[in-house]
Amino acid sequence: MTTETRSPPTQWPDLPEPGMIDAILDVIAQGARLDRALLVPGATMEALAIPSLDMVDILFEVEERFGIYVPIGEELVDTVYLHDLIKVLSDQMGAK
To answer: Which of 7, 12, 51, 89 is deepest in the core (most CB within 10 A)?
Structure first.
């Protein structure tokens, strides 16, 4: 599905445990030095403009905090919205 025909998501994907979304968003906000209010499901990764080095640090922090492995490659290629990134993380948590 292309971004032109896909509406921005309005809800977060399901995560294995309650409260995980807040913990992940806190890591992202702190690591990217962004206002937490900007981190909504439909925010585009482009609009958030998180530098790649900061994103790597964020992914390492998520890995450490949740005991998961986050692949940095094909799985992240289609992350248009913040929702998409959270979905990748959720999938990894489920595969743990």
So the answer is: 89
What does the pLDDT look like over 26-41, one tens digit per residue? 999 999 999 999 999 9
Single-letter amino acid code for the residue at 86: I
Contact 78, 36 (CB under 8 A): no
pTM of the model: 0.87
Max intra-chain CA distance, the chain: 36
The C-alpha atoms of residue 58 and residue 64 are separated, in whole angstroms, by 10
Question: Measuring CA to CA, which residue among 7, 30, 89, 74 is closest to residue 39?
Answer: 30
Owner of token pair 């959720």 = 90
